[in-house]
Structure formats: structure tokens, C-alpha cells
Amino acid sequence: MTSASTATAAPSSSVYTTRAFWERLWRTAGIQYVGFFIVTSIIYGYQPQVGASADALTAFYGGDRTRILIAAGLSGLNVLNLMWFAAALRTTLADAGQDGWGAAATTASALFGGLTLLALAISAALAYSIAGSGNTTLTSALNDFTWALAVLTSFPRAMLIMSGAFGLWRSKLISNGTFGAGVAFVVLGVLGGTTWLSGGFWAPDGAFTRFVSPTLLLVWAVAVSLVLTKSPATRAGW
Questions:
Q1: Global pTM exceeds 0.70
Q2: Cα–Cα distance between 107 and 163 in angstroms, integer?
């Protein structure tokens, strides 16, 4: 009877198995998030506004069904990029003794990701079957609901930006000028949660919600990712 071997496998020499590779990958997750967001937004197209006609809703959710479902899948994957971005930020802040701001980043990203996934699920369901069922009242209500969710994501988005701005500034990893820009982004982000006018720029489906609010996080994610890649890790986070 032969005895069991206790030999351990030799570690792989591939660069993809090194801690340095994974550290850089997750520290640049914010940039990956921005790239995926732009691609998925182009694929998804221009969602009908609040109170859109039945024909417009049918044309979008029915006519662009495949595009919407592809965009939903890619956007769901992109939520993971945002989670890794927040995790990299939390690790950096924890290393610098700013655990509270790191915890705030984790919480804010989780809430933002959850609301985003809910909106994606509704859009996918509309495209998959609801819009084609002929129930225009339900289709219209759910379409309007996704715009309400877009407004409400302003609050966790602002908190995520705030955690990075204050945490990195307290850690002396960003300049006063960058910190000031972050505070301005936070204020604009919170204001995005007040876009409840019945029409125009400050409506749930207005230009501020469509373009300004998302751009705040996109710009900040790139800026913070660049800071994270230049900040030496005092311990391996991955």
C-alpha cells in the first residue's frame, strides 16, 4: 500500500497569478467602469422619457429588445467593476488609517450598485416580455419608475464621491484643489436627488439626470483610480 504524497504544487510563474497584477487590476477598476459605462450606454440607446406614448415605449422596448438585453448583461458586469473600485479605495483608505471613510465607500457603492441592478432588472423585464404583453399602463409605470430610481441613485453616488474626496484628502493623497473639486461634485451629486420638476433640465428624465449626474461619477472614478495606482500599498489587499 503506497503512502499519500504530501508534496505541494509549485506556484505558477505567470504574471497573472502575482499579487502585483491583481493589485493594479482592481486599482484601475474605476477606469474599467467608465469604459464599460460608455459602451453600454451606446448599446442601450435613448430611453423614452416620463409619460412617453405607448408607441414610443413599444418601439424602444420591443424594437430594441436585443440591444437592451445585451446592455443589461454588460451593465450588470460593470456593477462588479464599481464594487472592485470601491474595494480598492477602501483598502487604500484603511492602510492610511481612514477606515471610516473606507467603510462609507463600501456602503455607498453597495447601495448604488443595488439601485442600479434594480433599474437594469426592470428595463430587461420590460424588453423581455412586459412591453410585448400589450399592457401599456404597466409598461409606462415601470418606465417612469426607472427614472425615479435614476434620481435616487444620486445620493449613494454623492456619498461614494465624498468618501473618496475626504478620505484621500485626510490621507494626504490628493491636493487641496482636487479635494475642492470633489466637494463640488458631492454638492452637485446631492442636488441630483432633487430633480423632480415636471419637465425640462431639472426633471427626472432631464439633462441633469441623463448626463450631468452620471458624468460626476465617471470623472471622479478615473481621477481616483489614477491616485490609487500611484499610491504604494503597505500590504497586499488581494
A1: yes
A2: 10
